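User: Can you model how flavin-adenine dinucleotide sits in this protein?
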Amino acid sequence: MDRRHFLRGAGVAGLAGMAARASATSLALPAGPVPIRATPDRLFRVTVCLRAFRAAGPRIEAEEVGRKKVIHNYGHGGSGWSLSWGSAELAVGMAMANGAKEIAVIGAGAIGLTAALTAQLAGASVTIYTKEQFPNVRSARATGTWSPDSRIALEGAVDGGFGDRWEKMARTSFSTYQSYLGMEGDPVEWTDRYILTDTPMGEGRRRKETDRPEKFLHLEDRLADITPRSVELEPGSHPFRPQYARLNSSLTFNVADLARRLTQDFLIAGGRIVPMTFHSPSDLSRLREKVIINCTGYGARALWGDESIVPVRGQIAWLIPQPGAHYGVYYGTLSMLARRDGIVVQETGEDEWFGYNDANEEPDRAAADASVATLAQFWRS
Ligand SMILES: Cc1cc2nc3c(=O)[nH]c(=O)nc-3n(C[C@H](O)[C@H](O)[C@H](O)COP(=O)(O)OP(=O)(O)OC[C@H]3O[C@@H](n4cnc5c(N)ncnc54)[C@H](O)[C@@H]3O)c2cc1C
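Assistant: Here's the modeled complex, given as structure tokens:
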């Protein structure tokens, strides 16, 4: 079992590549990160989100429905924010291939907003039709980190071109998000990530084996040239209770501000958002546009009868944001990301099947309290 598996076993989405590219040097930091005030009274919200997972990866393809051309753009698992711009590029390319200039987008989550903006930039007039808008969409309940291969597909279930398509989507998104850095409200920023262990990385604890024959597909090594390397911190040089720590940097999406900015940019460019719920594909005949990009996320399961979508449940306990606390920590089965719009604390399970095929969207307060209590143990007293 290698270090990649160890990290994944710790429920650390997106960190496997970080450790694989770890630098040999170790670093003593002069000042540690601000400790998080992990007390029950600071827990202000508990949310649940369902990842729309498809073994074959996101569905980005065209379908004729009556006299409409529908471009599907859904099923991004735990990677929707990270892949959104690249996925939009593919979907919009298909939508506008025959010169269409009037585009309807269904859905106003991460995927719908980025598809709508991408179509506008390509010269289209765009209307979004949607049941819900931020903050009531599932995208608002995401962790908010760069995680382009988190529960994106299963090994052996994807077609031969998937890896290349995924890489292009990830690279396009990664570079587009860089243009959101340094903006008022910090919709996107680079922040530190601490990966903590009780034993030296690559030794000791191993991934808990499952008896499932399937394996999630991991492709992040393909992006090694554009993502930072991690450094090992000297034991005792950091404020955490576990002895061993690695430090890396990753993109954080401050989702509240990012969603507001995407929505505003869309409206300023002349876009319209129309509240509308579709109950079956035949409802699309109500739209005047002939070309429709379908960005309904987990909602596609009911609307399109797509039972290849499997819900993967994830719950977040939200702690009050703290000035100066802008970083993430991963230890054991818990992750914490201190964002500007809340400190998100998440139980990630012993393996990646945690929450798989669980469509329960009811928050579990007792589990949230337990996560916060565990987080409080991360720092040396
Ligand atoms: C706990 C958790 C943590 C996550 N963390 C990350 C992360 O850190 N980084 C990352 O990249 N990804 C993350 N993800 C994944 C990411 O959140 C999703 O891939 C992404 O939000 C999907 O966006 P979407 O626009 O497809 O779906 P949604 O946000 O669900 O939007 C769907 C839209 O379609 C509309 N709609 C649906 N059905 C209908 C209908 N019948 N009629 C009209 N409108 C309809 C909805 O109202 C909504 O506006 C996480 C997911 C979970 C569950």
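A couple of observations from the model: Residues 49-51, 74, 76, 78-82, 106-112, 130-132, 137-139, 142-145, 147, 277-278, 295-299, 303, 314, 316 surround flavin-adenine dinucleotide (CB under 6 Å). The chain has two domains: 3-52+194-252+311-376, 54-142+256-309.
User: Helpful, thanks.
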